[in-house]
Structures are given as C-alpha cells and as structure tokens.
Amino acid sequence: MTSLLHRITRRVCLLSALAALTVATGAQAQSTLKVTTIPEEAASEQIRKFGPLVKYLERSLGTKVEFVPVSDYPAAVEALVNKQVDLVWFGGFTFVQAKLRSGDKVIPLAQREEDTQFRSVFITQKDSGIKSLADLKGKQVSFGSASSTSGHLMPRSFLLEAGLEPERDFKRVAFSGAHDATIASVVSGRVDAAALDITVWRKFVSENKVDTSKVDVFYTTPPYFNYNWSVHADMPAAQRERITKALLALSSDNPEGKEVLSLARATRFVPTKADNYKGLEAAGRSAGLIK
Asked: Contact, 41 vs 199, CB < 8 A?
C-alpha cells in the first residue's frame, strides 16, 4: 500500500512538473517583445539602424526582442493598434493617428532630445532658381510619405501659413514614400524641390551621399515636437516602466549606448507625453489630413 501511494505521489509530482514546464515554455514564447518603426528609410537601413537597439533591449529587459519591419506608415499604426507589435518608433503624426485610431489607447514613452525642437527642410537643385517657399509656385514638389510628420504634415502646414496650397499652386505634388527617396527625387531632377526630415538630410550630407554644391536646403521650418517610442495602453504598467527606464538609460558614455544613440541620430532619450503632440493634431486638422 505504501509502495502504491509512493508511486502515485511520484506520478502526481512528475505531472505537476511537466505542467509547470509547459506553462513556463508558453510564457517564454509569449514574452518576445516585438518592435517596429515607420519605414522612413530603406528596409536594409532600418535593420542596420535598429539591430543594436534590439540587442540592448534584450540585455536590459532580460527578454527576447524581435524587430518586425512593416511595409508603410499606416501599417506601423495598425500593427500597434491591433497589438501585433509591442513597441513602435513613430513620427509625431503617426503617433497622433495611432492615438486617435485606438481611442486614446496608445501611450508615448520617450523621444530623442532633438525631437523637442524638430525641423523639416526644403531642398532643391542649386541652379533651380528657387530661393523661397513663394518660388515653389508652378513647380513639381515632393513630400515623403503622406503620413510623415517631417516629410509632409509640417511642411504642408508651413506652406499653408505662407499662403501656398500645394494642390492648387504646384504643377505637381508627389509622394516619395521615404526620406532617402525624397532626396533622390531632387538629385535626379524628377521634381524641382522636396521636403524632408532635417536629421536625415544632415546624415546624407555628413556621409557625403549628396553633393551640396548641386543640391541644398533653401528653407528650414520653425521647430515642432516629433518622433517617439510608443506602446499600447494594455501593456502592463511595470513593463512600460522597464522599457522607458532602458531607453532613458542609454548614454554615449559607453560603447553600446553610443552606437545605439548614433544610429538613432540622438544625443539621448527623454520622457515625453501625449500632450506634447496636440500641436501636431491641430496642424493635421487644419491641413485637412485629420477629419
């Protein structure tokens, strides 16, 4: 009898251990943090840019982190709204779109210090004769993605302030889809001028990917709030806090932090909040981009 009870006890313990292992394995499988970004640059550049950050977050959070590229800006919005990813690098306007699309269920955690005073630039070929926004009348002008803050919303907003309605005053309005493609469209002469993210422009100039004796900036916008890292409000508060802490802890004082920040074109990350983007929402409504 004692032997039988012993065997039963051992069997129960074994089954309990197997059940616990199954639960743990399932939890581990579900613990992967999925990260994506608005595709403001080519896919190969996205992977190069965010690879070191993925490794940093894996080490800092103690969990597997996976970078999941998306096809376009709206796809990044839908991915977070539908909780297909956990953490997204949004432009200011895509954050506003995600916030509205989700019914205020998207929370911004951190932004680059540079994003508190962000700017867009308009570029043209040096011999185009374009010296000001007014000179764009009758010209072919390109924006980036229709959902881009720095490549469309804010440039359009400042054009409207200057009395220019793109669809009325320009010969043609184009959308390149990404900032690097925007630069290429001006270099190649497919358009007369274009608007883009100032940090992407500076990166191209610093890496000698554009000849500023032939193509250069003719107008820089006033500052505005831009990019941020956002999560869905359904993410547990403790996990949000861990992610925020990891992003804010990045420092150029060590090789790992220096690499991540350099690729992000950032000096450091700082806390942010939804109220910082109310101006972008107002600009979107004024420009007719938010109904």
From this structure: no
Q: Which of 220, 264, 268, 215 is nearest to 119 (CA)?
A: 220
DSSP letters for 229-286: EEEETTS-HHHHHHHHHHHHH--TTSHHHHHHHHHTT-S-EEE--GGGGHHHHHHHHH
Other C-beta atoms lying within 10 Å of the C-beta of residue 246? 18
Residue 18 pLDDT level (bands cut at 50, 70, 90)? very low
Query: By C-alpha distance, which of 95, 87, 83 is closest to 56?
Result: 87
More confident residue, 11 or 223: 223
Of the two residues 55 and 14, the one the predictor is more confident about is 55
- 237-247 pLDDT, tens digit per residue, is 999 999 999 99
Please, which contacts does 54-61 make with residues 24 or more away whose CB atoms are closer than 8 Å? Answer: 56/246, 56/250, 56/256, 56/257, 56/260, 57/33, 57/243, 57/246, 60/242, 60/246, 60/249, 61/33, 61/242, 61/243, 61/246
The CA-based diameter of the chain, rounded to the nearest angstrom, is 100
φ and ψ at 68, to 5 degrees?
A: -120, 100
Residue 125: count other Cβ atoms within 10 Å of its Cβ: 18
What is the number of alpha carbons within 13 Å of residue 157 lying toward its C-beta? 26
The 10s digit of each residue's pLDDT in 146-181 is 999 999 999 999 999 999 999 999 999 999 999 999
